UniProtKB/TrEMBL annotation:
SUPFAM superfamilies: Acid phosphatase/Vanadium-dependent haloperoxidase. Keywords: Cell membrane, Hydrolase, Membrane, Transmembrane, Transmembrane helix. SMART domains: acidPPc. This is undecaprenyl-diphosphate phosphatase. It is found in: Cell membrane. Residues 60-168 form the Phosphatidic acid phosphatase type 2/haloperoxidase domain. The keyword Phosphoprotein does not apply. The keyword Membrane applies. Pfam families: PAP2. It catalyses: di-trans,octa-cis-undecaprenyl diphosphate + H2O = di-trans,octa-cis-undecaprenyl phosphate + phosphate + H(+). It is an enzyme of class 3 (hydrolase). It comes from Shewanella fodinae.
Amino acid sequence: MLLHLAELDRRGFCLLLFWGKKYRLTPIALKLSTSGNGPTYLYLAVLLLLLHRDGQSFFNLLLASFMLELPCYLLLKNTIRRTRPCHCLPAGLVHDFEPSDRYSLPSGHTAGAFVFACAVLQVYPQFGVPVLCWAALVGGSRIVLGVHYPLDIVAGMMLGCSSGYWAGQLLQG
């Protein structure tokens, strides 16, 4: 069963990498991936804190969510130690893009994007669906760039959503 799942993961990666090359998605993937960098969340949270009446609630929820997500992310990443596809495939097969660390499971960009999306969904529900779609695209961009397998993205999504959910529950009392 696990071997079958690993094979599906590898095939899904190759398919998405192929589509990315065929349709020249690398520039878009780079922009999407960059939009999921950590400072983006801080800037948006501070901006909302200063300019919107629900900004304090959003800031608190986002902070609590990342306080749950980050230690879990680091523990998983450094315990599982799954080699990134860009570090184990032949040169030229993946894009010339170097990630910030060596391991791939879970995807930190995806986890962060879904933490943010879940916070938006709870505080600004009218923007939930577009932000969840954006978070999924951030995850997909990481596959197109060759730095994550699909299951890394699924794990990041689950980590981000569960962190956002539990932070919301904790803050509600």
